[in-house]
Amino acid sequence: MKSECSECQKKIAALALGDLDDRERLPLEAHLEVCPHCRSEQEAYGRTAQRLTATADEDVPHHFFVYPEPQSMNLWQLFRSMPLPWQAAAAGLAMIVLLVSVSAISRLQVRSDASGWAISFGGNSVDTEALSKNILQAAARRQQETTLALIRDMKREIERSNTNLTLQQQARLTNALEHLDSRLSGRISSAEGQVREDTRILVSELYRTIARQRAQELELINLRIDSTEVNSAIRARQMDEILGTLLQVADASLSQ
Amino acid sequence: MMLMNKCATPAMVRTGNSKIASDQEDSWISASQRGDAMAFNRLVLKWEKTVYNVALRLLQDREEAAEATQEVFLLTFKNVRRFRRDSRFSTWLYRIALNHCLTRLKQRPPGTHLSLEDQMNTANPASQLRVPENQISELVRMEERKLILSALTHLPPEQQAVIELKFFQELNFEEIAAILEIPLGTIKSRLYAGLEMLKIRLEAQS
After folding, report:
1. Which has the least CB within 10 A, A76, B30, B100, B140?
2. Which residue of B has its CA nearest to A171?
3. B167: DSSP letter
């Protein structure tokens, strides 16, 4: 009996886990019918398994959302991250700015007077500070519109998916969205700062280019003025010589 | 359509629901593989409680379990492109979670023994503020949970992992073998040994 019990007890755990086929299970169950010791062992295994499966999970202390590594975007990366229609609009705007710049530079005039330097394009004087401000404002406005459109798209997507979720999941998603909003706004402001800085650098480079071209033009004008003065002096000397010759001829005629 | 709805058995409804849930999970995985963090966060919402409790039972420390859970999800997000769908997403996630927790256990200095028993009464203020409908049954439930978690700490990590998957995640032997990538015989021997130790401890405590 004892060896049978010892043999049975090796299989009781397997029985509790439903891991015995009929060939092994039936003799074991027959033994359990008649052996109180093995039966109590089987009941203990059953109780343990039941207690383990009945243990409830704890709630999470907080959500474990992940975010891509934050990285500062340059103008090209910002452009690449835009949706296609916005990319087209931005490319169009850049083209217009380029054309206007080229056209303006080709008709550029720089004047200096008592109040300081003034730049004019084709005779119309331009306020450089206002121009810089306008460019910065346009860039910031464009950036803001792009970001708002992105956020609107994301919200729309989440609202659409919310219809398939439970209230608890919706609440979690709303929390996640708020968290995302706050992170996104931080990134937007840093991206705007970057755009401003890039635009400022562009404008200063534009000014330097204009100044350099103006200096070259002034040098050319000076050279032309110099050559005109030399020509005038030569012509004046030639005229003097001609007049001198004519006077000598007249004097000789009168004396004859 | 109405007739069809009336004739639908609970099993059919459940099958339909699980099909929808599986499709939804598939679409989230695909979007995550394209780098969509929002889609991955939906997977996080679905699985965070499971992963956190796996980590909690193995590591026996709430703070470390939360840290490990965050690391598991970051690891999963970084590697989600490598998930080839030759197994279920849950199998892949369990494998990452268990391997990560077992690595953490191995990195602990020798002789470290943490137990949630000491943290039970203080660590979760929210659960203390909540007034249970039946305070006695709530206390009994907490005491039972304390006993089980305490008994688990005395098992070797490999046995804990098998017990976790069999009893707390209710997976079958084949699924456990797929997750832990060890032979079925080893799974069974670890499970029987672990269950026997738990039986001895829990019966003695009772």
Report:
1. A76
2. B45
3. I
Torsion from C-alpha of B23, B29, B35, B37, nearest 10 degrees:
90
**Cβ B44–A55 below 8 Å, yes or no?**
no
- Taking an 8 Å cut-off on Cβ atoms, the answer to whether B163 and A53 are in contact is no
Residue bearing tokens 């859970």: B69
Structure tokens at B34: 């394209």
Which residue reads 């000397």 in tokens? A237
Nearest to B114 by CA among B150, B66, B75, B157: B150
Query: What is the per-residue pLDDT across A192-215, written as a single tens digit (0 to 9) for each?
Result: 888 889 989 998 998 998 999 999
∠ at Cα B77 (B72, B78), nearest 5°? Answer: 100
Distance from C-alpha of B4 to C-alpha of B9, rounded to nearest angstrom: 10
A256's CB contacts (< 8 A; 6+ apart) are none
**ipTM surpassing 0.85, yes or no?**
no
H helical segments located in B109-169: 125-129, 135-152, 157-163
pLDDT per residue over A24-64, tens digit each?
999 999 999 999 999 999 999 999 999 998 888 889 999 99
**B44/A64 Cβ within 8 A:** yes
> Which residues of chain A from 10 to 69 reach within 8 Å of chain B, CB to CB?
13-14, 16-17, 19, 44-45, 47-49, 51-68
